[in-house]
Amino acid sequence: MSRLIVISNRVSAGGGSAGGLAVALTAALRKNGGIWFGWSGEQTDEFTGHINFQIEDGVRTATIDLEEQDIDEYYNGYANRTLWPLFHYRIDLAEYERSFAGGYARVNERFADTVLPLVEPTDLIWVQDYHMLPLGEKLRARGVRNRIGCFLHIPWPPRRLLMTLPEARELVESLFAYDVLGFHTDEWLESFVSFVRDELGGTVGDDNVAHWNGRALQLVACPVGIDAQEFSMLAASETAQQTYTRVRESAVGRTLMVGVDRLDYSKGLEERFLGYERFLTETPKARKEVVLLQIAPPSRGAVESYQRIRNTLEGLAGRINGEHAWLDWVPIRYVNHGYPRDVLAGVYRASKIGLVTPLRDGMNLVAKEYVAAQDPEDPGVLILSRFAGAAVQLTDAILVNPHSAEEISDAMRQALAMPLDERKRRWQRMMRSVQDEDVMWWLDRFTAALEGRDDAPQPEVPQNLVVLR
């Protein structure tokens, strides 16, 4: 493969506690050479275009600082208060401000100007996610003729929802500057196709090549995975084993249910708590036999909607504990900070039920990590939202509508009563999917398309498409 230029909002060269995506991109950069370019996360009084070069875990990184106005309008504004809620179907929370759109365009221009001198003629350029959707167009305007791809890590909204964005048409038109555009699932890809056909008047062939205004754009559906082997090894590490023992002892013989989610309204945490409350109310004999551990690290604290969800969850947890707790038992343990991956691996293995119930999610790698961390001889049960991208692959989870407290409550009862042989069968099929379509599979599939090769690994067609209830 040619040298790779990875461009993302933040740079996270894999190593230590880095997640699977960072590990995969780091491996590709280390193998083929290249640069990981992005925002440092730091603020500067005046943007100068100065690049801070470093070597992290054998990978060359290049970062820039942004001005306060850039951070407010581009990151806190357009990325997190406009695109994020809209692309997660929450138009009630989306804020459409011209200053946000202006800041988003300005920062993308600055990214293009700064990275341009680093690009060599044979490099492959790979833009990650919604923060820099128009970056390909900005680079083309500066004369870049390299192969450029973009992968969207969040859902793509239906056409009518996207049309609420004042700049929707211009945003989609800008994506035709790329050679390849990737999505996690066929559903997100088809939503994009609908917009191209019905709003732009473009065409899309059976080969998933979109044509508009003389340009051709290859569309690819390839779900991102995790490093399944590495995460399974983490679950067997000394730290994970110590965590497992400590967590199991703290449950005092009760069944532990776990949720691990960034504190975000898209994760369905309020709905999960309400479903658990219904379970406690409808199943009085079983309620003292379970404990829900919810780990929810705060994020984007400068955005008002995130402050509201935190206040709501704290109130719900207090109310549920107040109504249902006993002297020797509290139904919800609600924790507002994160943990290293090896600690989480131990928590996952100690939990007999994993709750991954987002209202909408591009993929959700926690679901795959939960599966990879399980003991093959006594695996836990995954309760998974049918609106998470992972539900397309993990069809042997108990799939639920996260908006329905009744369905969540029913799923908890089903999981608690599930016999060992059924738990094993479900886990084995899910683990096979997690292993076969791991993060390196995703990397190979997308980069093959970006290079224009026809040997890209294809996704397996699930053999079991029946939702097990």
Give a verbal description of the structure:
- There is one protein chain.
- The protein is α/β, with parallel strands linked by helices and 469 residues long.
- It has two domains: 4-225 and 440-451, Glycogen Phosphorylase B (Rossmann fold, 3-Layer(aba) Sandwich), CATH 3.40.50.2000; 228-436, 3-Layer(aba) Sandwich (Rossmann fold).
- It is 43% helix and 19% strand.
- It has 16 helices and 16 strands.
- It has helices spanning 20-32, 68-87, 98-115, 135-141, 159-162, 168-174, 186-200, 228-235, 238-251, 269-282, 304-324, 341-350, 365-372, 405-417, 420-436, 439-451; strands at 4-10, 34-44, 52-56, 59-67, 124-128, 147-151, 180-183, 203-204, 209-212, 215-221, 255-260, 290-295, 332-335, 353-356, 381-385, 398-400.
- It has a ten-stranded mixed beta sheet with strand order 3-4-2-1-5-6-7-10-9-8, sandwiched between helices. Strands 13-12-11-14-15-16 form a six-stranded parallel beta sheet, sandwiched between helices.
- α2 packs across α3 (98-115), α3 (98-115) packs across α4 and α10 (269-282) packs across α14.
- It is globular and about 70 Å long.
- Tell me which oligomeric state these chains represent: single chain
Sheet of most strands: 10 strands, mixed
Strand content: 15-25%
**Average predicted confidence as pLDDT:** 92
Percent range of helical residues = 40-55%
State Rg. 22 Å
Present the secondary structure layout.
Elements: E1 4-10, H1 20-32, E2 34-44, E3 52-56, E4 59-67, H2 68-87, H3 98-115, E5 124-128, H4 135-141, E6 147-151, H5 159-162, H6 168-174, E7 180-183, H7 186-200, E8 203-204, E9 209-212, E10 215-221, H8 228-235, H9 238-251, E11 255-260, H10 269-282, E12 290-295, H11 304-324, E13 332-335, H12 341-350, E14 353-356, H13 365-372, E15 381-385, E16 398-400, H14 405-417, H15 420-436, H16 439-451
Helix pairs in contact: 2-3, 3-4, 8-12, 9-12, 10-11, 10-14
